[in-house]
Amino acid sequence: MLLINKCIWSGAKKNLVLSLLFFALLFLSSGCKKNTGNPVDQNPTAQLVPATPTLSTPANNSAMVSIPPTLMWNASYRAESYYIEVFIDSGFSGSGFSKGGLTGTSMQISALNKSTKYYWHVRAINSNGTSPFSATWNFTTENSSTP
Questions:
Q1: Is the pTM of this model over 0.85?
Q2: Whether residues 72 and 126 fall in one domain
Q3: Residue 128 is part of a domain; what is its CATH number?
Q4: Based on CB atoms within 10 Å of each CB, which residue in 24, 29, 49, 147 is the most buried?
Q5: How many whole angstroms separate alpha carbon 57 and alpha carbon 121?
Q6: Where are the beta strands (DSSP E) in the chain?
Q7: Is residue 26 one of the residues assigned to a domain?
Q8: Same domain, 64 and 124
Q9: What is residue 1's predicted lDDT score, i.e. its pLDDT?
Q10: Rounded distance between C-alpha atoms, residue 97 and residue 71, angstroms
Q11: Which residues contact 129 (CB under 8 A, 6 or more apart)?
């Protein structure tokens, strides 16, 4: 009876060791990387594209914004330049303004109409690609010139 128990115990230890070895190899072959669910983590090439910028000023839905306004956004990780669009249509078509190659994080826009609602967004660019556009914000210009 003792011999049978040793064989069972010996077989159980062997299975346990083999299972641990299998999972250790599986873990090591995965590169020990944590999968956060972020597409950038899953695609190494995407890690080289700049992060999406975030807008800062004027605040979203601002009213009575002085002309010319200075539009500002936060620096984007890995950005070499920025591209901005400012339009009167939220679909960014028709009458508006766009400019690329901006190396700073602000731009003063002088050719705007009074009492007009404008929509704007920014994207970051580097030699590896382009980020998605930031969230779209809007502001309304003042209705008369300030003295």
A1: no
A2: yes
A3: 2.60.40.10
A4: 49
A5: 11
A6: 55-57, 62-65, 70-73, 81-87, 96-102, 106-108, 117-126, 129-130, 137-141
A7: yes
A8: yes
A9: 46
A10: 13
A11: 48, 49, 50
For the beta carbon of residue 82, count every other beta carbon within 10 angstroms: 25
Q: Is the CB of residue 59 less than 8 Å from the CB of residue 71?
A: no
> Do residue 54 and residue 126 come from a single domain?
yes
What ranges in 31-114 are assigned the alpha helix state H? 39-42
Q: Which amino acid is at 110?
A: S
Q: Which among 100, 95, 91 has a CA at the least distance from the CA of 136?
A: 91
The type of residue at 74 is N
CA atoms of 44 and 49, how far apart (whole Å):
10
Helix extents (H) in 30-128: 39-42
